[in-house]
Specification:
This protein is an all-alpha fold. Helix content is 56%, strand content 0%. Helix 1 crosses helix 2 (42-56) and helix 1 (6-21) crosses helix 4 (71-82). The longest helix is centred in the first third of the chain and has 16 residues, at 6-21.
Length: 86
């Protein structure tokens, strides 16, 4: 997966959240918090990381996700991962 825009990454993450957790699309916004607004737990977060690793082909360090609070934080983390050393 090469050089996706943040908008494309958001679309991918939204699709994963809908597929894995049957969330309503209109609940998923960049500002939505993963644990409060979307009611995900730490196991759910691991599932999201696994799906993103498959999509990106990149290893995502657990530390990367320790500070993630919102959907936009996930987008930014994936964007930065894809553009490392670019």
């Amino acid at each position: 997966m090469e050089a996706m825009t943040k908008e494309q990454i958001f679309t991918e993450i939204k699709a994963i959240l809908i597929k894995l957790f049957e969330l309503e699309e209109d609940k998923i916004s960049p500002e939505a918090t993963l644990f409060e607004d979307l009611e995900l737990d730490s196991i759910d977060a691991v599932d999201v990381i696994v799906m993103l690793q498959k999509k990106t082909g990149k290893k995502i360090a657990p530390e990367t996700f320790k500070s993630v609070k919102t959907v936009q934080d996930v987008v930014d983390a994936i964007y930065n991962l894809l553009h490392e050393g670019a």
